[in-house]
Amino acid sequence: MLVDEVKISVRGGKGGNGSVTFGEHRMDNRPVGGDGGNGGSVYIEATTALGDLSRYRYAKVFVAPNGENGGRNSHGVDGADVILSVPRGTVVKNLTSGEPPFEMLSVGERMLVGKGGLRGRGNRAFSHARATDPSRADPGKNGYGAELELELQLIADIGLVGLPNAGKSSLLNAVTAAKSKVADYKFTTLEPHLGVLPSGALIADIPGLIEGAAEGRGLGAKFLRHIKRTKLIAHLVSFESEDIKKDYETIRGELSRYDKKLADKDEILLITKADIASPSEKKSALAIAKKLNKNAFLLSVEDPKLLSIVSDKLMAWAA
Asked: Global pTM?
């Protein structure tokens, strides 16, 4: 199960208290109390080592260690920072501050989400001409916390879209080493599946859309976000369709309603399951498709020649 949306709570550690201590000998009243350590902070870091957000499905609260208190002639040790790794492509929403969402797009990119509290100063810090109160020390400050929503938006080169049973999973399995489930009923794919083309391009099979998906019908708009960053949209329409033009325009409309920028992406139109059609039916369907999109091709995963043509086209567009 692909976990692509979670909510977590984070908090930086408390700063250590400053120390009020004096010299070791009874007659030695020199203030020698050290400062506390700073509280540890919580960061989110992007990585390619994770495929989704499942590590945060059950672990929801992350608190960095406190800084140590100061001691005699010594400062407290800072609390260790906590690094929360997320897949590259994760969007971080701070529900506490209401700040604009932050996109984690680069490997190693870090975002501070729970700042540690500042250390308290010990009485040694106040032993000077302008502050001569030897019994004064500051307490450490509390760390800052936040409620976060993490939303994964896959970073794939190609996104496969279409109505249920358009042949998306079959194409993914045929051109990559993926093993996406294939069956003759709606919504076989209930979550995005990924595969890698021989060129190294990443291809994502987006669950079947239906009219009204942008407003939450069917599997809803949840998975539409996974094609926002693709270079190319591969739009699949089955030869089994009663109206190729209507099916094509239905999905195009849903994409545009979700995000108008999706309509401007490079797109290839594939008329799938061509093996069930006669030569005249293929010719007629391709003519209709070419009027909808000049980059239209016939496809059958059972036809090595057609499959090879489509595979080459996908790799060329994703390069």
From this structure: 0.75
